[in-house]
């Protein structure tokens, strides 16, 4: 009976992985096609689809105990995708999402902090490239805040949080 339950849980987890990947790809295609053809009236639908995609990915990974490292990398890339394809509000949204995901996944799950800090640094560099003067101040603030926050709340044995 225990073997059957383990197989059943494993099949649920693999189904959840494929579902989250499928939803992320589908919503990325939806964003790239319909956002360029529509006016700003569809911004509510766009933000709703972004929110649903990221919420589903986080929910499926954390509560079903899936691979956190690969999920964080995929979500960071998805946030970087938002830098390219959305407006100024999309930039700010993608920055907030990548910062939130990096902090949450590294502190509360204590896994792959080095890789998460690398992707977070890449997101901050994208701020310098893609945004105006406001982006410079925001990226400086974020790097200082994250350096202080991560150095206080992370365990002492973890290395590689250079910003």
From TrEMBL:
The keyword Transmembrane applies. The chain crosses the membrane at residues 15-33, 45-66, 86-109, 116-134, 140-161. The keyword Transmembrane applies. Keywords: Membrane, Transmembrane, Transmembrane helix. This is Uncharacterized protein. It comes from Acanthosepion pharaonis. The lineage of its organism: Eukaryota, Metazoa, Spiralia, Lophotrochozoa, Mollusca.
